[in-house]
Amino acid sequence: MTKKEIYENKTETLITPLIKANNFELVDVEYVKEGSTSYLRVYIDKEDGITVEDCTLLSRAFNLILDTNDYIDDTYIFEVSSPGLMRPLKKDKDFQRNLGKQVEIRLFKSLDKQKEFEGELKSFDKDNITVMMEDEKEIIFKRIDIALVRLAFDF
After folding, report:
1. ∠ CA(13), CA(19), CA(22), 5° rounding?
2. pLDDT > 70: what percent of the chain?
3. Largest distance between two CA atoms of the chain
4. Mean pLDDT of 67-80
5. CATH topology of domain 92-151
6. Which residues pair with 30 in a beta bridge?
7. Percentages (nearest 5) of helix, strand, coil residues in the chain
8. By the 8 A CB rule, do 139 and 133 touch?
């Protein structure tokens, strides 16, 4: 397991009781390096949307836990955020929640000379995602080939 995975898993374990106590949903935890700065980010959501106050509440409460447990060796910045409208679908619960909705899929490599697809999310399992295209054709994408999946929005 990489240092990144260890930090993310430990954070998820430690923050889950706070998430549940405040009726939030944990969308994602990521530990990333951007330039010379490392970030520990927690993305949360709830049915009627996340507010700045929600992020502040969770940030303050979890900072105390971070200070007590001190499991990250590097210097980092801790952030709590809403995942936003254009958030990627990563976990099974994301796919489950969005079955029947329009999604955008971007592939790492072209499939039939195309890297971007849009259609209705029909099903998923640990290896594949099935999407019904506009022409009523179902395409099964291997998860390993997918760079990004997110909800499709018409602006």
Report:
1. 155
2. 99
3. 56
4. 94
5. SH3 type barrels. (2.30.30)
6. 41
7. 30, 40, 30
8. yes
